[in-house]
User: What shape does this take?
Amino acid sequence: MFSNLKLTITELAYAAVNMAEETLDSATGKDKKIAAIEYIVSMLPIISPFRSIIAVILSKFIDEAIEKAVSYMNSIKNLEA
Assistant: This one.
């Protein structure tokens, strides 16, 4: 069960980081990370009452997925520069 959910989180992380960058352009990294986490949790294919529980259980994985997405986005920016 969690392997499919982790794949979904990994895929959502890229969209979440991109959304946070675009909507919170001048905000701090911490604010962008919070927005990305909220986006991922809201998009999980789980019924609402269980989303917060799953978010707590997989919080470290969600953080790692976001950091990986941020690193990837930064590497693309560096290639374009």
Notes: The chain has one domain: 2-80. Residues 2-80 form one domain. Residues 2-23 form the longest helix (22 residues).
